[in-house]
Each structure stands twice: as C-alpha cells, then as structure tokens.
Specification:
Catalytic activity: feruloyl-polysaccharide + H2O = ferulate + polysaccharide
CATH superfamily: Alpha/Beta hydrolase fold, catalytic domain
EC number: 3.1.1.73
Strand order of the largest sheet: 1-2-3-6-7-8-9-10
Keywords: Carbohydrate metabolism, Hydrolase, Polysaccharide degradation, Serine esterase, Signal, Xylan degradation
Largest sheet: 8 strands, mixed
Protein name: feruloyl esterase
GO molecular function: feruloyl esterase activity
C-alpha cells in the first residue's frame, strides 16, 4: 500500500476537512511494550530483505542490513520458511522462530511488486458475513490473504506443534500490516491465540469488521501509526469525502491505536506513544489533515532496510 494509492486520492483527500475528535487516553505504556514494538517493527522491516524469503532462507537467522534491527539481532532467530509472490497479490514474507523470546513470527512484506500494487488498488469489498455479521473487507487484501494463508496456516500449525510453549505473532508494515491483520483472523478462527502488531496498515474492512477485530479476545491487537502517515487513513478518509465516497465503500479502523507522535529520526518512547481508544477515533492519526508519506518510512526506527522501501513505490 503506497504512493500508487495516493496517486488516485491525493488531490481530493488533501483538502481540509472538519475533524470530529474523540478522546485519547494517556494510558501508560510499559518499557517492555516499547521494546516489543521495536522488535516487531524490525521483523516487519526485514521482510524487505530478499535473503529472508528466497529459496535459501530456510534454517538461517533473520537477516537485516548492518546498522538496522539492533533489538532483533539480540535474539537467536531461525527462519522456518520463506515465501515469495504467492498468488493472488504477490504475497511475500517469512515464518521464523525467535528462540530467545519463544515467539513464532509470521511476517508479511509491504508493497514492492506490481502484484502488490494491484492488490492495494482492488479496494472494492467482499462480504465476509460468515466470519462476523455484516462484515465486509477489502477484496484485494482478502484474496491475497486467503491465497497466502491456505499455504501458511499448515506451516504455522506444524511449527507450533514442534514448539508448543511458543506464542504466535503476526506482523507487517503497510500492506504487510493489512495481510497480518487478516492472517490473524484466519489463525484465530482456527482456534489459535495470536498477537498482532501492524505498522502503518491501511483499513482492511468496514465498521462491523473493525469492531470485530477490536473485540477479539484470542490475542492482543497493536495497531501502530505514526503522526500523519497517509496510509492508515487514506481509505477511511476517501470513503467519507465527496465525490470519492461514491467510489470507495465505507472503511473503518480498529481500536486501540498506538499513535507515535515523535518525528522521523527520533526514537519513540513511552511519552511519545499515545493510546487512542475507540473505533474510528480521530484523536490520533485519523484526525491529521496533511497528506504526506514521510512518516510512513519511520516506525520505531527506519524501515528502509535492504533498499526495498516505501520510497520505491512510485
């Protein structure tokens, strides 16, 4: 999800709008949670590295360019399976163990390929009322997730059987965050407890679906945004702004949101992460008006790992 979407919406979404602001909650974030945000943002960034998802990745440690991923590198990691260009949607990423912290981590890459961009732009919705009453989700994301999870669900379950005391984590940045969200739904519906860490993820469905995600008790949800990053709000805004609302179906964002308020280049801390409670609460990222992609490349650190970054999505 990147500048291909902005090319469609930039002119109209960028107009000033009336902001309906709900309350934010300065709930204390523990130092350990800040560390986990950093850890999984580094897993997400590392999905850009081809060495983590090509044919030779299995059995190796998770790779990250020198100077990046300092938290991740402190752990003993092992890639169980790398996957590339699963159709439809070109879904790419890797399944790995964090042996130090006893995590099974399924990581999805963001938008890099033409197939990824096509999935981003396929924003009409499909009915998923078999999952939750009245729920509809982004067709491109859903098709890509279904194709990927048909392959990955058995591998995650096999890995869990071999490591029964490990916790399942799903993570990703941008498009990867959307796929992680839908993948978490699939795993939870299969009886697993899954913690979800998404970074700069776009909306994946309508309000009923956002409420379904919010109310899930089969794991914790951490939807992390950064200042006025455009990606988490573009579908939300477009579905509420004339004349785009005639083209874009209603999209919502789940709760809670963990809104990083520190600028690019500055490490986020407990004092610069606000907890925004409530579906579609505009006290955080959704209430920002500037149209910019600059914050999208910085989540707990620089996401520009292995040169495949949000800057390349033009």
């Amino acid at each position: 999800m990147g500048q291909s979407v902005l090319g469609i919406f930039m002119a109209l979404v960028g107009m000033s709008i009336e902001i309906l602001v709900g309350p934010s909650f300065m709930r204390d974030i523990s130092p350990s949670l800040v560390t986990e945000f950093t850890r999984f943002s580094e897993f997400a960034a590392s999905a850009n590295c081809q060495g983590n998802h090509n044919g030779s990745s299995t059995g190796s440690s998770v790779y990250c360019d020198s100077g990046y991923c300092n938290t991740l590198h402190k752990s003993s990691t092992q890639i169980i399976d790398g996957f590339e260009e699963i159709k439809p949607g070109g879904t790419t990423g890797y399944l790995a163990l964090d042996k130090t912290n006893k995590y099974i981590v399924l990581t999805f890459r963001g938008t890099v390929s033409a197939e990824n961009r096509n999935a981003d732009l396929d924003f009409q919705q499909v009915d998923v009322s078999t999952i939750c009453d009245g729920c509809k989700v982004h067709h491109g994301f859903w098709a890509a997730s279904e194709g990927a999870m048909n392959v990955l669900l058995p591998k995650v379950e096999e890995t869990l059987r071999a490591n029964p005391d490990y916790s399942i984590i799903l993570t990703g940045h941008s498009l990867g965050g959307a796929l992680a969200t839908l993948g978490a739904v699939t795993l939870r519906n299969s009886g697993h407890t899954v913690d979800l860490y998404s970074f700069g993820a776009p909306s994946v469905g309508n309000k009923a679906f956002a409420e379904f995600i919010t109310k899930s008790t089969a794991g914790k949800n951490y939807r992390i945004t950064h200042t006025n990053d455009e990606v988490p709000k573009v579908l939300f805004r477009s579905s509420r702004r004339r004349p785009l609302d005639s083209l874009v179906p209603e999209y919502s964002q789940s709760s809670p949101e963990y809104w990083i308020t520190s600028p690019n280049g500055v490490s986020a801390t407990r004092s610069t992460i606000q907890v925004i409670e409530g579906v579609n609460n505009e006290a955080g990222n959704l209430g920002t008006t500037e149209v910019t992609m600059e914050p999208h490349g910085w989540y707990m650190g620089d996401m520009s790992v292995c040169a495949q970054t949000w800057k390349d999505w033009e």
